Amino acid sequence: MPQWIAACETDDVDPEDVVPFEHAGNAYAVYRSPDDAYFATDGHCTHERELLCDGLVMGGVIECPKHNGRFDYTSGKALGAPVLVDVRTYPTKVEDGTVYIGVP
Amino acid sequence: MGRERLERYDLTGPENRAAVQSGLAGATWFRSAVPRKRMKELMRRTDGPAIRDTALWVGLMVACAGAGIALWGSWWAVPFFLVYGVLYGSASDSRWHEAGHGTAFRSRWLDEAVYQVACFMIMRDPTASRWSHTRHHTDTLVVGRDPEINVMRPARLAKLLANFLGLVDVPLAFRAMAVHAVGRLTVEEADFVPESERPKVYRTARVWLAIYVVAVTAAVVFGTWLPLVLVGGPRIYGTFMHVVYGLTQHAGMGENVLDHRLNTRTVRMCRVNRFLYWNMNFHVEHHMFPMVPYYRLPELHEEVRHDCAPVYPSLWAAYREIVPAVLQQLKDQDHYVKRELLPGAAPFHIPNELTDGRARPLAAAATPSAPASDQTAPDPTVPDPTAA
Q1: How far is the alpha carbon of B40 from chain A, nearest alpha carbon, in Å?
Q2: Which one, out of B118, B180, B357, B388, has a CA that is 20 to 30 A from the CA of B85?
Q3: How many domains does chain A have?
Q4: Residue A88, min C-alpha distance to chain B (Å)
Q5: What residues make up the domain containing A89?
Q6: What is the CATH number of the domain that holds A87?
């Protein structure tokens, strides 16, 4: 069972954008899709240790700010060089305007 | 001394490992503080500008090639092929760069299509050069790590000058194609191309070699140079402008400095040059924020210029610095261009033995207890804005 951690308020993230979140020394990225669904991944790119929250969200894709590596943030799938390893995703839920992420 | 120092650029040598151990490799680099909202605006991309510029680029090439073919045999063909050659052998460099980053178009397939064509024209394998450029962005001008340091210390002047006509790069490109076509990488490529990506390199080389075989065969069969003037040849007779532009990026500047404001130039250029170079003259800005598409770099420049060293007002101004610096480095490999940030610019790090720009051998330098990039403190070369 994941431990549900309050990451941010729903309004803290613009549609089609991402915000950073830290918990227990780990970095996470919390996304709001264009259709207002929320997703969460590890905070760093799997290629090099670059924060994804500084990148660009386009539809269901996050692009890393350093080398333009792209991930499908809904599934974590790496979409091509220079990212070859999928990024870890976490379940999310929204309750009373708060976004929670499920941390193992 | 010069030869020993040149050996340090070898990606397979000890300087690579020393850079990793000292924290110079994969370090945190300076970035100006730009509000997230503004960055999002700057990073947004549309297809329009790059479709327009690509249509103009391809259209001009077709028109010039057509005129050159029609006038083949007379001197009137020369100016048309000169323009065609520059569009093919020089402008393809910036298309390779921007489409390789995936920022030119919003539609990914357009980026990929332009990238593949530009790679063929500039004779850089699409896969290997993508990884090479990725490393260049991670470790810009870090000795032993950056595979794209064109002007080493001391500069290999004969090679530099020969490459205005592609006389070193083109034979090396064909050598690499031959190596790739038999299912191998060069030793240096093996340092940055992952195993899973290598089959793509081999496939591309075989296709490209087949195209060149067809061009050479056509030239022989029809008894004319025309096929080679159109395909491959422009990488020789039209490539000089990409060298002229490219040398402005980093030549003569500090190595191992971990701050693009100190090892990269932004140079003002006219509209024609900016079209050919796809705004890569805003190179400090590009290195700081590689996500920003080329057509938004002028806006990004306005956002961060207060934080940088002064812009070079022209290509001429840049070369007035580059030529003496590179010549001086032939005699003194500790020499480099020291950039002074504008008053009030954000400080970054205290230059130390590792990061002061000289790039002394890492084994001889004092290894800091923390990674080189963590040496964050006011830069004494920057005037303190709070000082009375």
Answers
A1: 7
A2: B180
A3: 1
A4: 20
A5: 3-103
A6: 2.102.10.10
